[in-house]
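Why do we care about 3D structure at all? Because function follows from shape, and shape follows, mostly, from sequence. That is the central idea of this module. The next example makes it concrete: a single protein chain, its amino acid sequence, and then its structure expressed as tokens.
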Amino acid sequence: MRPSAVRLLNILVPVKRTVDYAVKIRVNPDQKGVDLNVKHSMNPFDEIAVEEAVRLRERLKDQVKSIKVVTIGPPKASDTLRTALAIGADAAVHVEVPDAAPPPEPLGVAKALRAVLEREAQAGAPVDLVIMGKQAIDDDAGQTGQMLAGLMGWAQATFASKLVVDPAAKVAEVTREIDGGLEELRCKLPLVVTTDLRCMRTEPRYASLPNIMKAKKKPIQKLSAEELGVDLAPRLETVKISEPAQRVGGGKVANVDELIAKLKEAGITAVKS
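And the structure:
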């Protein structure tokens, strides 16, 4: 009896366009958000996820059939997709939202990703592995991966620092960061993995000029929330955003006695045990 052929892996990598990590964040005058008229780039944790997907293909060779990236954002988010394509992804999906629309919340994003996964399965290319950043640096929610796994009924491995996939056995071994150190999980595919900083064993590769030119020819499928049948309207209302209070400069003291005197002046007294 001849063994059945192993189905090749399809990988989906969600990415997000965020304010560049090096930009100083400033609150808008209406205190409802931050100034977005600044440099944007791919969320750093998502960049790690794209890099991990490309390295996975380099390790598994022809056992990885495709790496597709997806983003949910305004028209300018296509630049983020082109960056991911230049790094090594094969194709992209852009769920486009209007520039004036509020940013979608994690649950809405997770539902949109579920719809994308369902479309991929209907097209005959079911996704085996979703690799995404553990959080976005703009809202720091860290919820989308877990919500997506729950909606799909898939296994999940969050805060991953190492990923090893066995396509023949349809399992993945994931090392993840926990408070006490490291935890090793063995998960069945399909699987949702969220990457931590330690997954970046070396710096993510820079897109070379030839790869940037090739990325312009790679396909980007445009979709809308309506086509996916999802509602991206936010459920939460931002009441107010304010900058942290300015820190008062410190001072130096010559000895312990002077320190104690300064503490007393500030109204700080010792507590009897």
